[in-house]
Design a protein that fits this description.
220 residues, four-stranded antiparallel β-sheet, three-stranded antiparallel β-sheet, 5 helices, rod-shaped
Length: 220
């Protein structure tokens, strides 16, 4: 029995090793594709067990299909009217087209480097279409941050998916600030506007008081 058991064990090991050469698993969190002699032959977007020819005939490429969050560094850009502002933007993205992703960037690190560059270009294009008062304003109804974010997302989505196989799911402005000179000018304008409003209210009140006094005198 011992003599029979050893050959069976060896056979089982050989079968397992052979299976490992031709079979692979795609997990729920992955997307994968197979290349044959360097050329793409098929993509697997659903989890499960798949088979292929052994390396080097066919090779499996896998990527994490879950969402990634990328936060860009603070970057200065200019609004419509040449007022400089400093913006920090974040993006939520995923590998949407694994073959395009593999050919254009290859790794998550390189993808985020491309994403950073594209975010800077998007910020410059979109922010320059809006005035400073649409970013910072004492009147909340005049602030257009939500629309600005939507415009940035639309601009970024098209370029990233077409060129790099990356789908940008969401984009937002995490931080917005201005330099000291701009801050001083903003507060001065706000102070001036409030003073004008106060003076107008006082003037209106005085006029109303005069009218009441005049009406009362005429009644007598």
């Amino acid at each position: 029995m011992k003599n029979v058991g050893i050959p069976i064990l060896v056979l089982i090991i050989i079968l397992i090793l052979s299976l490992m050469l031709v079979a692979f698993q795609v997990r729920q969190t992955e997307v994968a594709f197979v290349t044959r002699l360097g050329k793409h032959v098929r993509t697997m977007e659903k989890p499960g067990l798949y088979f292929k020819w052994p390396v080097p005939i066919e090779k499996v490429h896998k990527y994490d299909a879950r969402l990634h969050v990328f936060e860009a560094d603070l970057g200065e850009t200019t609004t419509k009217g040449a007022v400089p502002i400093i913006v920090r933007t974040y993006a939520v993205w995923k590998v949407a087209k694994p073959v395009s992703f593999y050919r254009s960037v290859g790794t998550v690190g390189q993808a985020e480097a491309k994403l950073y560059s594209q975010i800077q270009d998007t910020q410059n294009r979109v922010v320059s279409q809006y005035t400073f008062s649409e970013f910072v304003n004492s009147d909340k109804s005049k602030i257009a941050i939500e629309q600005i974010q939507e415009d940035m997302l639309a601009d970024l989505k098209s370029s990233m998916e077409e060129e790099y196989g990356i789908e940008v799911k969401a984009l937002g402005i995490k931080r917005l600030q201005v330099n000291d000179k701009v801050s001083a000018n903003v507060f001065n304008r706000m102070k001036t506007a409030r003073n004008r409003k106060t003076e107008a209210t006082i003037t209106s009140g005085q006029a109303e008081a005069t009218r009441i006094v005049t009406d009362a005198a005429s009644v007598r």
